[in-house]
Design a protein that fits this description.
Helix 2 packs across helix 5 (188-194) and helix 3 packs across helix 4. The relative contact order is 0.18. The chain has a single domain (2-214), classed as 3-Layer(aba) Sandwich (Rossmann fold). The chain has six helices and 13 strands. It has 247 residues and is an alpha/beta fold. 28% of the residues lie in helices and 28% in strands. The longest helix has 17 residues, at 37-53. The protein has a nine-stranded mixed sheet, with helices on both faces. Strands 2-5 form a two-stranded antiparallel ribbon. The protein has a two-stranded antiparallel sheet with strand order 3-4.
Length: 247
């Protein structure tokens, strides 16, 4: 079985966010970059668990990004990926990225395509569905459990107010979220092995981006907190009536 895991480079959640060029570009200076957690903790680790049950399984990684994405690719290889493909393009358009991933998937003949449910920077949650459509594959989103019996996958996904259990024959594309697997860290053996694992760089196919960034905007600064003495409850009542805002 061949599994393709889509990974993305995102800023660490503790990074201080700023923008340049009249708020049209993200300022990368001083930012710590990581593998998107949904891709790493759930999609990649679940793929690794499947390989641990079937040693013949091959796990390939794909990312769309410039050369500065290679350190996070190497980390994913250290965790347990067998080889990686980097599409040499830098774009924030979901359709463009999905098209590049789909092209890689077409060439590789994969049985499973795993993505994280979204990236923690743009929170678009659109790549998985687009990849599935471009590949004409069934798609199950927001998966919390994935079990495989031969070529039949049983997938539990989160829905409003509960869970839904689906059965689907491979090949299939799945977006993964919390519950799919437990996060792991690379061990020394994996880190050493990752240095020599194949990392292939391919040029992007010609695709027109459908969206472009007009501007970014930071959320408003948090307002100050007013403290009211427990001896003056009438002041609290006044503030609630006159100044409090319902959000």
């Amino acid at each position: 079985m061949k599994i393709l895991v889509c990974i993305s480079k995102t800023p660490d959640t503790t990074a201080k966010i700023a923008f340049t060029d009249n708020n049209t570009k993200f300022a990368p200076d001083g930012v710590q970059w990581i593998i998107n957690p949904y891709d790493e903790w759930y999609a990649l680790v679940r793929a690794i668990e499947l390989k641990e049950k079937d040693a013949s399984t091959a796990i390939h990684l794909v990312t769309v990004g410039a050369a500065d994405a290679e350190p996070i690719i190497r980390k994913a290889l250290a965790l347990g990926g067998d080889e990686a493909i980097r599409v040499n393009a830098d774009s924030h358009d979901s359709f463009y990225i999905a098209s590049q991933i789909a092209e890689v998937a077409k060439q590789g003949g994969y049985d499973l395509v795993f993505t994280g449910k979204e990236t923690i920077d743009y929170n678009g949650s659109s790549i998985g569905g687009m990849v599935a459509e471009l590949l004409d594959l069934p798609y199950v989103s927001l998966a919390t459990k994935f079990e495989l019996n031969g070529i039949t996958a049983t997938i539990t996904r989160e829905i409003e107010g509960g869970e839904e259990v689906c059965e689907v024959s491979l090949p299939v594309a799945v977006s993964c979220q919390k519950g799919m697997a437990e996060a792991r860290i690379p061990n020394m053996r994996g880190i050493m092995a990752a240095r020599t694992k194949p990392l292939k760089v391919v040029e992007p196919v010609a695709v027109d981006a459908l969206t472009s960034v007009v501007s970014f905007e930071l959320p408003p600064a948090k307002a100050g907190v007013k403290l009211v003495s427990p001896d003056t409850p009438e002041e609290l009542v006044r503030l609630l009536h006159e100044e409090a805002k319902v959000i």
